[in-house]
Amino acid sequence: MVYVYRGFNWAEQLPRIRQTPLPYVLAAVLCDIAVYCVQGWRWNELLIPVGKLPVWRSMQAIYIGLFANEVLPLRPGEVIRSFLQARWSGVPFAVVLSSVVIERLFDGFWLILGFLVTSFFVDLPPVLVYGSRILAGILLILGALLAFAIFRRQQAEKWLNPKLRHHLNALESMGRSRSFYNAFLISFLYLALQVGPIYFIQQGFGLHLGFGASAAILVILRIGSVPPQAPGNVGSFQAFAILGAMLFGVDRQSATGYATLLFIVITVPLWVVGFFALLATKMKLRQLTEDAHQ
């Protein structure tokens, strides 16, 4: 954060942030909410062969997990949302956690594809290129293991503890179902909708970079968020948003103002919705974290 805001002209940029037209801000917020509605839909599609839960329940679990990631270190949100999904749906926790891993594989595939497309139009920093290669390698290994578990089940059983072998049934059911491929396609929509807040805020802020540049900035933000970092990606989010905007010719002052507004628009609604989603469970976040890790 110190690096990001070193030399930042608050007197010049803060009024510009405040003057961003409200319709653009509302459009960005609605797009961001739609992202997690689609994520809840995708999660339900993936879990159809093993259990069914109302989409709004899946969305509630997702928002609570996101809220946990925003306020707690080490990103416990994925474990917490898996725990809630398992409790509410009756699907074994290990199976739900496996579905989250599959979600990440889907996201990673579309993200790497987006990165490759972006690299044809923008000279990306070496650190992002190396990071994308590492991510691609991890995804390749995880994807191979998943395919092995689904399509070579008898061989996979030999490598697993007998107590865990019944979970292969669930993985096989998910992997061989039509809903698995539906979830894969929904993942593209999930990623595409994330371009919305970036696009609307840069339009409202007066940058007018276009949809393609917004998609490239999203790819940079997502690649940059892969390594472990501070809760809510504070600091790193702004740094990568600034980097993305500057790659398209935006000056640093304007890029920093834009990154600041984008962070507020994306993060504050998430805090609010996540807080009320947690409040509806009548549980404390610390209690949920402890229960999920037991």
Question: TL;DR of this structure?
Answer:
The protein has 294 residues and is mainly alpha-helical.
* Shape, per Cα inertia axes: globular
How many DSSP H or I helices?
A: 14
Tell me the number of strands: 0
Residues in β-strands, percent: under 5%
Largest sheet: none
Radius of gyration in whole Å, from Cα?
Answer: 20 Å
Multimerization status: single chain
| Secondary-structure class | mainly alpha
Characterization of the model:
It is built from 14 helices and no strands. The protein has one domain. The chain has helices at residues 10-18, 22-47, 55-71, 77-89, 93-119, 126-151, 153-157, 166-176, 178-193, 195-204, 211-224, 236-247, 252-281, 285-293. It is globular, with a radius of gyration of 20 Å. α2 (22-47) runs antiparallel to α9 (178-193) and α4 (77-89) packs across α14 (285-293). The mean pLDDT is 84. With 294 residues, it is an all-alpha fold.
